[in-house]
Design goal:
The complex is a heterodimer.
Chain A lengths: L2 H4 L1 E8 L5 H11 L17 H6 L7 E7 L5 E7 L8 H8 L4 E7 L6 H12 L3 E7 L8 H12 L17 H11 L12 E10 L3 E10 L1 E3 L3 E4 L5 E3 L2 E6 L2 E4 L2 E3 L3 E5 L13 E4 L18 E7 L5 H14 L4 E7 L3 E8 L2 H14 L4 E3 L6 E5 L4 E4 L11 E16 L3 H10 L3 E7 L4 E9 H4 L3 H8 L5 E11 L2 E8 L2 E2 L5 E4 H18 L7 E7 L2 E8 L16 H15 L1 E4 L2 E4 H8 L2
Parallel strand pairs in A: 1-3, 1-4, 4-5
Antiparallel strand pairs in A: 2-3, 6-7, 6-15, 7-14, 8-13, 9-10, 9-15, 11-12, 11-14, 16-18, 16-19, 17-18, 20-21, 20-22, 22-24, 22-25, 23-24, 26-27, 26-28, 26-29, 29-30, 31-32
Chain B lengths: L2 E7 L20 H13 L7 E9 L7 H14 L1 E12 L6 H9 L4 E7 L3 H7 L5 H14 L4 E7 L6 H14 L3 E6 L18 H14 L3 E5 L2 E4 L6 H8 L3 E4 L4 E4 L2 E4 L4 H9 L7 E2 L2 H12 L6 E2 L7 H14 L3 E3 L3 E4 L1 H4 L2 H8 L1
Parallel strand pairs in B: 1-2, 1-9, 2-3, 3-4, 4-5, 5-6
Antiparallel strand pairs in B: 6-8, 7-8, 10-11, 11-12, 13-15, 14-15
Classes of the chains: A alpha+beta, B alpha/beta.
């Protein structure tokens, strides 16, 4: 181990959502003087507008801190931030691959939650040293000793020495900084070996092109290096490299084994780099790449269409740009009879879907229509062939289908014992299969269910929260495919199928959902000049029916004294409103109608 | 085409709670206002513009000094070229005039009266903030007849707070007994922050207002329904002045908040007495907007379709019929409009959804 490496610590912070990850990151930045109080913006690492509003970290970011420890030595801390929501688990594992250790924050009042455990296991899987930290000790309900025991009993790591902090008030942050130096191992790696660096994130900059974030494992990269991407063989001359600071980037001459930094190389094409790839030196290449990431598996799919069909190309460009920073997002062109040209997109979960949609609307100024979300179904046809279906429109004629399978997840729900009844009821309603229930202590349980994914993607999490007063936490992972009795439910407006509203549903749920959707559409479709029948149907069989009555009154009674400007303005406003509607035959459907169905 | 003159008298004893037009709750300071109106009119001297209608609107013209109105008319006759049958209308409110006032109007040539009844139910009148009762309206009306006015319009409003078909029926029956020449029936339209919304009244919903509209149409079937909100006795002619608005004929508006359409331009005066008077004194001209060819078409459509004459294809852009044929036929099949050889017009059902029809066609 080089002397340089002895003073480097690469780590992530992992936690259940809302246990204080971003707040601790801010305190670490403050205490190490990277950011002055004046520059300190709340939760600096979460620098996307959307992240701030939702209070969640979506994208991993990295920052370099310098800390003088009590032993008099100066340490370089590379903090690699990770997302906290279950949808983004794969990004957590991506960040962890670049680290030797992880700070595991546990809320002193709430104790271990489902994602505390899931993240801790991820860290263990990646051979990381875990430094437990107990946060929010300022809360009246804090039970630090109890939580220490919980960490030891449930996760199985020692917690006696765990720093007890309040990130919010800045209490005992020094203890964390000290513990990092002592607990988390320094990187090892051969500075003289051929270059091997892991791309753990990338970012598109309008001026510099693609900026890649790397962790150098072996060797070194300098300004003279000609990089070679080991997965696709592409080569690039390094233009600039350096360290990542909280407030920007600081160029340097070289990055050596154990270090974390950024590289720019006039990489123009969005597809020339991939996160998880290994960078090596063209003239002194490594023989084997680093073990890559597990390929990300999108689990939820939906169609995204521009409200204004003319903006199809803008949507495509925007998706390409987002994809650069979001390896989990996949998309391919598709056509809808109802909506025209758009894209079928794959997401990690419903939250991921919503975030992508919101980013497209905000950052790229697009108005979008989202079709009903779907999972991937496996279909065996009567002729023996099989197909994967992510778009309900493509479902073969039922007479050609021998069997259908749907994805099940293994779901873990942690909750105070008081809500066990409510949780079981909810899981039962959602076709869950009970596996087991374990008492974590006298007051808390861990409940394990196998659940169909297509039941989880429709507001399961919201429902869980509301039935447990917000106390339950959820984690899930894809488990298996199981045969299931599924049907396609179509929605007809004025007798015409609107393909964008079709979805696949379990036979037992079809009636209830069909009815709810028809009722919801009746609410959100405004009255128009003609009566609009709304029908939910399976094949030719109508299972629910509602009617939007014809409009009776839409008139300006008075144009007093020859003032026609009011009327002109009113009509202009109405015409503007029409632009946000999609026309299906004579029926105009507002964009919100698609969203509201998605939320059911 | 002859022009119409409009004079805005922005004074009220007490502004009605539903009213969204410009007026003030006082009657003083009129001298300086009328001076400004006369100065504004002077700007047209020498042009000999032909005029065949005059309308005094408000506010409440009847709260103004009648001699001021007479003076305005006298001056107008000097400046403009009045046709011998010029229609001269004044809006009155019950309880704001007496016999002497009416005689002054008469002598200065006023030949048409428009008076607000709004409702024949006294509880509804008080909810609207009107200053009169049904009985007071009736005695004012009888006085008008006594003095000799033979062309009277009565305004009513439907869709009133806590109203239903029964209360409206009472108003309409009362109206039929009056046997006035002209009736304006407006659906109550409040702006979003109207104080009336804060009083816990129950307002009929759109379907309810539509039912009331049907009742109005039905009970006034002896009248010609010549515009969305206007009815005239079969034997009488529609209000010439109001028709100018729908027919895009020229009109000149004088006074605060008055609107004009003249020589292809639209403009309006400031909605504030003080600003208006100052503007006139300093000879500041309001900004005139030339109506583009495209806007003329849409104005033609939205204004003509308010009337029972409808719109002629010849007045619309070339190819309009071919382009919209399918839609027009759909509307006709649904009973919203009637197509003729040279154009189309809205039906009574079509009138009440005219905004949506216009939005579809424009």
């Amino acid at each position: 181990m080089s002397d340089r490496q002895k003073h480097i610590r690469n780590f992530s912070i992992i936690a259940h959502i809302d246990h204080g990850k971003s707040t601790l990151a801010d305190r670490l930045l403050e205490k190490t003087g990277v950011v002055s109080a004046r520059e300190m913006e709340e939760q600096l690492l979460d620098n996307m507008e959307l992240e701030r509003e939702r209070g969640i970290t979506i994208k991993a970011r990295a920052v370099r801190l310098v800390y003088r420890a009590k032993d008099g030595e100066e340490y370089i801390y590379n903090l690699i931030d990770t997302p906290g929501h279950v949808d983004f688990n794969y990004e957590v594992s991506r960040s962890l691959k670049a680290c030797e250790g992880a700070i595991l924050i546990v809320d002193a009042a709430q104790g271990i939650e489902a994602q505390t455990l899931a993240n801790a296991y991820l860290a263990v899987d990646n051979d990381l040293e875990i430094l437990p930290v107990i946060n929010k000790i300022d809360l009246p309900s804090a039970r630090p000793d109890f939580v220490k025991n919980e960490i030891e009993d449930i996760i199985g790591i020692p917690a006696e020495e765990a720093p007890l902090i309040s990130a919010k008030n800045g209490t005992n942050i020094e203890d964390v900084l000290e513990a990092i130096a002592h607990t988390i191992p320094a990187p090892s790696g051969d500075e003289d070996a051929p270059l091997k660096a892991l791309i753990f994130d990338s970012y598109y900059d309008a001026y510099k092109g693609v900026i890649i974030y790397i962790r150098v494992i072996d060797g070194k990269i300098t300004k003279d290096t000609t990089m070679k991407m080991m997965a696709n063989g592409k080569e690039f001359e390094v233009v600039e490299l350096g360290y990542l600071n909280a407030l920007g980037m600081t160029p340097c001459q070289e990055l050596c084994a154990g270090e974390v930094g950024y590289v720019t190389a006039s990489i123009k094409s969005l597809k020339d780099t991939s996160v998880g790839d290994t960078v090596t030196d063209k003239f002194n290449p490594a023989t084997e790449p680093l073990p890559g990431y597990k390929a990300v598996q999108p689990m939820v799919f939906c169609g995204l269409y521009p409200v204004d069909g003319a903006r199809y190309d803008d949507l495509k460009e925007s998706l390409l740009k987002l994809q650069l920073n979001d390896a989990a997002l996949i998309f391919e062109p598709e056509t809808s009879i109802a909506l025209g040209f758009g894209f079928r997109c794959g997401f990690l979960g419903l939250l991921h879907l919503e975030i992508v949609q919101e980013r497209l609307e905000r950052e790229f100024n697009l108005d979008l229509i989202t079709t009903a979300p779907s999972v991937i179904y496996k279909i065996t046809k009567t002729d023996g062939t099989t197909m994967n279906l992510d778009n309900p429109t493509n479902l073969p004629n039922p007479s050609e289908i021998a069997s259908m399978e749907e994805p099940f997840v293994s779901a873990t729900i942690m909750s105070p014992t008081d809500y066990v009844g409510n949780i079981m009821e909810l899981c039962q309603e959602r076709r869950g299969v009970f596996i087991d229930m374990k008492y974590l202590d006298e007051t808390r349980v861990s409940i394990h269910y196998d659940m169909p994914l297509n039941e989880i993607i429709y507001d399961f999490f919201d429902d869980l929260k509301s039935r447990t007063k917000g106390y339950a936490s959820l984690d899930y992972e894809l488990a298996s495919y199981k045969e299931s009795k599924l049907v396609k439910l179509d929605i007809l407006l004025n007798g015409e199928i609107v393909d964008a509203l079709s979805f696949i549903v379990h036979t037992d749920k079809a009636y209830a959902r069909g009815r709810r959707i028809a009722e919801k559409l009746k609410e959100v479709i405004p009255r128009q000049l003609f009566e609009i029948p709304i029908q939910a149907a399976i094949g030719n069989k109508v299972i629910a029916r509602e009617t939007v009555k014809a409009m009776r009154k839409d008139v300006l009674a008075k144009c007093y004294g020859g003032d026609i400007t009011r009327k002109k303005k009113l009509l202009e406003k109405q015409k503007e409103g029409k632009k946000r509607m999609r026309q299906f035959g004579t029926v105009e459907v507002p964009q919100e109608a698609f969203m509201s169905v998605l939320k059911l | 085409m002859n022009a119409g003159l409009y004079f805005h008298i922005p004074y009220c004893v007490k502004k009605c709670d539903y009213c969204d037009f410009y007026s003030v709750n006082r009657t003083d300071g009129q001298k300086i206002y009328f001076e400004a109106v006369r100065k504004e009119m002077e700007g047209y001297r020498g042009k000999r513009i032909a005029v065949d209608s005059v309308f005094f609107g408000g506010g409440t013209p009847s709260v103004a000094d009648p001699m001021e109105l007479a003076a305005l008319l006298e001056q107008a006759r000097e400046i403009f070229s009045f046709s011998s049958d010029t229609e001269i209308t004044i809006e009155l409110n019950p309880k704001t005039f007496h016999r002497e006032k009416l005689l002054i109007y008469c002598n200065s040539g006023v030949n048409r009266i428009s008076m607000g009844l709004q409702s024949a139910n006294n509880d509804e009148l008080s909810k609207l903030g009107r200053i009169h009762t049904k009985e007071e309206f009736l005695s004012s009306y009888e006085l008008l007849r006594e003095v000799g006015f033979s062309n009277i319009n009565t305004d009513i409003i439907y869709g009133l707070p806590d109203s239903d078909l029964h209360s409206l029926e009472r108003t309409l029956s009362f109206l039929r007994e009056l046997d006035c020449e002209h009736i304006s029936a407006y659906a109550l339209t409040l702006n979003d922050n109207s104080p009336m919304y804060r009083r816990g009244y129950r307002f009929p919903d759109d379907d309810g207002v539509y039912e009331q509209y049907r009742l109005v149409c039905e009970m006034l079937s002896g009248y010609r329904h010549y515009e969305i909100s206007n009815f005239v006795k079969q034997s009488e002619s529609p209000c010439r002045h109001n028709l100018k608005y729908w027919q895009r004929a020229p009109y000149l508006g004088f006074g605060a908040a008055a609107h004009s359409f003249f020589e292809g331009c639209r403009w309006s005066n400031p909605e504030d007495i003080h600003c208006y008077v100052q503007g006139i004194q300093q000879e500041i001209q309001p900004e005139k907007e030339k109506v583009s060819q495209e806007d003329s078409f849409s104005e033609t459509m939205m204004l003509s379709l308010r009337t029972d004459k409808g719109v002629k294809y010849a007045d619309l852009p070339q190819g309009f019929y071919e382009k919209n044929r399918k839609l027009l036929e759909q509307f006709e099949a649904s009973g919203y409009l009637t197509m003729g050889e040279n154009g189309f017009r809205l039906t009574e059902a079509g009138f009440f959804v005219s905004n949506s029809i216009l939005t579809a066609l424009l």
